[in-house]
Amino acid sequence: MRHHHCGHRGMHFGRRGGFGGGAPDFIIGWGMGRGGFGERGERGGRRRMFDGTELRLILLKLIEEQPRHGYDLIREIEERSGGAYAPSPGVVYPTLTMLDDMGLIEESKSEGAKKQFAITEAGTAHLAERTEEVAALFERLQQLAGLRERSHGGPIRRAMGNLRAVLQERLAGESVDADMLHGVAEILDEAARKIERL
């Protein structure tokens, strides 16, 4: 495991208008969601987690459970993956159109302007022919949720948030001097060494 220590000499405190004008750049860069734990699946710009055929089966199975509209399907997939994956409308709606053209779903009555779909007999038969494949796909969604939960690291996020807030407060004042910076660096170095030994 490679580890980069934040030694006194190597620790660079970038500034935005000096400490008095805000927190150092390296602290601001720790905001969760900027390439950190908070990234989402497809919406975060990553590659698709399911190909076209797989997504069709997932949508069809969800529609079999109950009639749904496009946004509801996106939200349901996101919830079942623990927030790790949410297909974009630009993928979901064309897939629904394809399923409709294939005769596997049909538009059903719904309140409001949103188009809602229900499964057809052909759609039910289609799922019955692919029971194992569908089960495997939903198992993948569940695994994504588990991975998300572990990588999301609730307690770690809380601790990192506390650290970030404290550093912003202590290092944004006018009284920051070299001794304080070295003291902070020593604490962070020691914490890093302890984590590396876990």
Low-confidence stretches: 1-47
Record field, number of beta strands: 3
CATH class of the largest domain reads: Mainly Alpha
H-E order: HHEHHEEHHHH
Based on secondary structure, the structural category is mainly alpha
Trace the largest sheet across and list its strands: 1-3-2
Based on CA atoms alone, the radius of gyration comes out at 24 Å
**How many DSSP helices?**
8
Shape annotation: elongated
CATH H-level superfamily of the largest domain: Winged helix-like DNA-binding domain superfamily/Winged helix DNA-binding domain
Organism: Sphingomonas leidyi
Keywords: DNA-binding
Protein name: DNA-binding PadR family transcriptional regulator
GO molecular function: DNA binding
Ordered list of secondary-structure elements with their pairings:
Blueprint: H1 25-28, H2 52-65, E1 68-69, H3 70-80, H4 89-101, E2 105-108, E3 116-119, H5 121-128, H6 131-152, H7 154-171, H8 178-197
Antiparallel strand pairs: 1-3, 2-3
Helix pairs in contact: 2-4, 3-4
Describe, in plain words, how this protein is organized in 3D.
The protein has 198 residues and is mostly helical. The chain folds into two domains: 63 residues, no CATH class; 105 residues, Arc Repressor Mutant, subunit A, CATH 1.10.10.10. Helices cover 56% and strands 5% of the residues. The protein has eight helices and three strands, in the order H-H-E-H-H-E-E-H-H-H-H. It has a three-stranded antiparallel β-sheet. Strand 2 and strand 3 form a beta hairpin. Helix 3 packs across helix 4. The protein is elongated. The N terminus is likely disordered.
